[in-house]
Amino acid sequence: MADHYPIAESDPSGVPGPVEALREIGFWLERSRSETHRVKAYRRAADIVAELPSDEVSSHRAAHSWRDIAGIGPKTAAVIEQACSGAIPQYLLDLRAAAQPIGVPGKPLRARLRGDLHTHSDWSDGGSPIAEMMGVAAALGHEYCALTDHSPRLTVANGLSVSRLRRQLDVIAELNEQLAPFRILTGIEVDILDDGALDQDADLLAELDIVVASVHSHLRADSETMTKRMVYAVANPNVDVLGHCTGRLVEGARGTRPESRFDAEVVFEACRHYGTAVEINSRPERRDPPSQLIRLAVEMGCEFSIDTDAHAPGQLDWQGYGCERAVANGVAAERVINTWPLADLLAWTKSA
Fold first, then answer.
1. Whose CB among 125, 180, 199, 282 lies 3.0–4.6 Å from 191's, allowing a Cys bridge?
2. Same domain, 92 and 208
């Protein structure tokens, strides 16, 4: 997929209804890294309208009284009004027209990606329900997408306890029946603890399709400590992907953060030896690993995973950023695990 948002299949006219229009606006705003409060206004309005009984929808449509509903302001009301009239809202048309291609030099690699192995929902610190995240992933052309919400130690991100994660697995099983042949992969972004252990029950991790292991704490530890910590985690047979390995932030609302210090040759050799992919994180504020470390991982024979780390539906289209960096640094498509067919990917994760 590139640079368009598919219209709901249920509407043969190609004109989205008010809920679909509001959500698509949210998608484009997220994709373009707009302010969070703007995105939330449109997504909140979509949820409000979606929950209205049909008779109330008809009443507001007839009376043009959308502004009377709490949570719907003048801009969202205008979108609803235009969509109800059978027109594509002007603001949506403007956003579609303004959308720019992402990562053009990486487009051939992006076309070969079959899925995304690092995403979040509102079960942890994402902003949207699982069904919406995965529906958009499928609409973007993915064959599969892993849901990797945070583990329990990351309380600021509402990390999942064993019981909550097991409940999530039940939800995923139901959604997989609805979305087939698209496949939601069960997963987690598990915290790498200070001693290199993983922040979740080992037996439960073994049941998951994809385990992304990431460092989120004590990022300024000395190089020897951080190297041992990461190698211990990478060597864990349940770990499939080493997430955003340096932890750096290069821009954005959270400010900047320097790279963690570790012996990259030792860590990447462990990744190669134990069959753990090095993530190329596509988030613009991360761009992790830095280019020189991507090139080092290539030289050392590592596999890679190009992921969005998406926390909202529009961010699922950010893979082009990662693909552009991968191509620029010599990553071959066949060494990117999410270019592989699902059966091959799952055989690899189970054998690693």
1. 199
2. no
- Return the structure tokens found at 116: 């995304």
Task: Evaluate whether residue 126 is within a structural domain.
Answer: yes
User: What are the per-10-residue average pLDDT scores of the chain (352 residues)?
Assistant: 45 79 97 94 97 96 96 97 96 95 96 98 96 96 98 93 98 98 98 97 98 97 98 98 98 93 98 98 98 98 98 97 98 98 97 76
**Do 207 and 248 fall within a single domain?**
yes
Q: What is the CATH number of the domain that holds 323?
A: 3.20.20.140
| 3-state DSSP of the chain | CCCCCCCCCCCCCCCCCHHHHHHHHHHHHHHCCCCHHHHHHHHHHHHHHHHCCHHHHHHHHHHCCHHHCCCCCHHHHHHHHHHHCCCCCHHHHHHHHHCCCCCHHHHHHHHHCCEECCECCCCCCCCCCHHHHHHHHHHCCCCEEEECCECCCCHHHCCCCHHHHHHHHHHHHHHHHHHCCCEEEEEEEEEECCCCCECCCHHHHHHCCEEEEECCCCCCCCHHHHHHHHHHHHCCCCCCEECCCCCCECCCCCCCECCCCCCHHHHHHHHHHHCCEEEEECCCCCCECCHHHHHHHHHCCCCEEEECCECCHHHHHHHHHHHHHHHHCCCCHHHEHHHCCHHHHHHHHHHC
